Amino acid sequence: MPIPAGTKFHGVAPGVDTEDKGSARVSADREAYTIEEIGAAGTSDVYTLNASTDGDNVDLNLDAVSGVDSTVQLTAGTGIGISQSGGDNVTIENTLNNVGGVATLEPEFMTVGPGGSSTITTSKNIVDLTWSGGSGTHNLTLPSAAAIPYRFLRIVNDSTVTAQDKVDIYAPGTETIDGAAFYRINKEFNGIAVWSDGSNWIVIQAKST
């Protein structure tokens, strides 16, 4: 026969010692449940969604009224930014530079000149050179190919670098660039693209000199 509505069942809260079933403590800790409550257990709950900042990540918290809470952590990846603001507002954005929905490369602008030397330290993947001063040679050192394996880096220059202006692009330490100590740029609107094989730099594209 079906169990009548309103029938109550007794249970013991988790963690209660039930070995002595006649103890007063067990009786006091017993809870009564109707058949309707048992039937509804685990089938539904009401959740409140809230967000919180966790370092560089954002946590989405599902706060259950009577069930088990749950948390999902959002972690930003390359070119993706995740932020939490305005209470529970979460923003996911493309952090790559873009204009009108078209991805662009933002360069590191560097000024070079005769008798000088500098090192590329930027994390950007394109360096735009401008020459300042009289004729001469400037030594420009690449970052370590071993420190950043498989990095791609493009170096370009504007019209200020002429045939009398030489930018010698060096590999650091004992590393090489195309098997040599340096690669020279001495032409308007010139440029090269280099790639790290994990040990040295390789020129994979260059305008004719």
Structure description:
With about 210 residues, the chain is mostly beta strands. The chain folds into 2 domains: about 45-100, no CATH class; about 105-205, Jelly Rolls. It is about 5% helix and about 45% strand. The protein is built from 2 helices and 18 strands. The strands form 6 sheets. The chain has a 5-stranded mixed beta sheet with strand order 10-12-14-17-18, with no helix packed on it. It has a 4-stranded mixed beta sheet with strand order 11-13-15-16, with no helix packed on it. Strand 4 (about 55-65) and strand 5 (about 70-75) form a beta hairpin. It starts with 7 loop residues before the first strand and ends with a strand.
- SSE series: EHEHEEEEEEEEEEEEEEEE
Number of β-strand runs = 18
Question: Helix/strand/pairing class, anyone?
Answer: mainly beta
Biggest beta sheet attributes: 5 strands, mixed
The strands making up the biggest β-sheet line up spatially as 10-12-14-17-18
Taken as a percent bin, the fraction of beta residues is over 45%
Number of helices: 2
**What is the overall shape?**
elongated
> What are the segments in which pLDDT stays under 50 over at least 5 consecutive residues?
none
Helix content: under 10%
Give the topology, please:
Blueprint: E1 8-12, H1 24-29, E2 30-34, H2 35-40, E3 47-54, E4 57-64, E5 70-74, E6 80-85, E7 89-94, E8 98-99, E9 102-103, E10 108-112, E11 117-119, E12 126-131, E13 136-141, E14 152-157, E15 165-170, E16 182-185, E17 191-196, E18 201-206
Parallel strand pairs: 10-12, 11-13, 12-14, 13-15
Antiparallel strand pairs: 1-2, 3-4, 4-5, 6-7, 8-9, 14-17, 15-16, 17-18
